[in-house]
Design a protein that fits this description.
By secondary structure, the protein is mainly alpha-helical. The chain contains five helices and three strands; from the N terminus they run ααααββαβ. A three-stranded mixed beta sheet has the order 2-1-3. Helix 1 (5-30) runs antiparallel to helix 3 (93-174) and helix 2 runs antiparallel to helix 3. The model has no long low-confidence stretch (mean pLDDT 94).
């Protein structure tokens, strides 16, 4: 295939834009801000789960304390009723003995319940402190997640802006290349996954960094300036310039 030597050189601008766009695409995939968001989100999820567990424990302990308070109140009421009967003097000697025994039993029961209630109250205080700490940590994690998401969005917006600039420049560069030469370039670009042309500099293909020797070098050196030559190694169009070392 033949193409004007100067048209071939226009491919270098096109290739440069393709390189820039590929770098931007790679940057978008590997932004540290993306990893920071993942880390912050994971931390926020962990602290939220911790807060939920702490809140559940507090509610359970509160219910248990309330139940014990009810049990203590029931025992007190029963003891007060028995005491009133004793104080009334209207019961028999046997009933009086039974009531005295029951009052002793109720006193022991009330003491046990109050001891258990005190232990639960201490556990509840500890759980409430843990809940407050978990909620504070959760709020801090949410703040950090919001900050990380904003940093990510800013970075993505910057990549998008630069991509738009290079896409426009690429379109302008492509518009200067003859259709048949551009079609060949695009076909090769699809095959390489990067660019369809590279400068031949100091006898080295700048696409694959392989230096030309022997017959390959002689073929390129002797080729018509308007002949489209390609790298035997990577298949890119070799664009010859004054720096090619031929």
């Amino acid at each position: 295939m033949k193409a004007d030597h100067f048209d071939q050189q226009k491919l270098l601008a096109l290739a440069a834009e393709d390189v820039a766009l590929a770098q931007l695409a790679h940057r978008r995939r590997t932004l540290p801000e993306l990893a920071a968001v993942d880390t912050a989100a994971e931390a926020e999820r962990g602290l939220t789960e911790q807060a939920v567990r702490a809140e559940t424990e507090v509610r359970d302990l509160q219910r248990e304390v309330k139940r014990l308070e009810g049990d203590v109140d029931t025992v007190r009421q029963r003891a007060a009723k028995d005491q009133r009967l004793l104080d009334s003097g209207s019961v028999s000697a046997k009933q009086m003995t039974d009531l005295q025994h029951e009052l002793q039993s109720l006193a022991r029961r009330q003491s046990d319940l109050e001891d258990t209630e005190l232990e639960l109250m201490e556990q509840l205080e500890t759980a409430e402190n843990a809940l407050a700490a978990a909620q504070e940590g959760q709020q801090a994690a949410q703040t950090e997640l919001t900050r990380a998401e904003q940093a990510r969005d800013d970075a993505l917006a910057d990549v998008a802006d630069q991509t738009a600039v290079h896409e426009k420049a690429r379109a302008e560069a492509a518009g200067t290349v003859p259709a048949d030469l551009l079609a060949l370039y695009e076909r090769i670009r699809a095959q390489t996954g990067s660019t369809g042309a590279a400068m031949l500099k100091a006898r080295q293909c700048q696409g694959c960094r392989i230096e030309l020797f022997g017959r390959e070098l002689a073929a390129v050196r002797n080729a018509d300036p308007h002949e489209v030559v390609r790298c035997d190694n990577c298949g890119r169009i070799l664009v010859r310039t004054a720096e090619s070392g031929l």
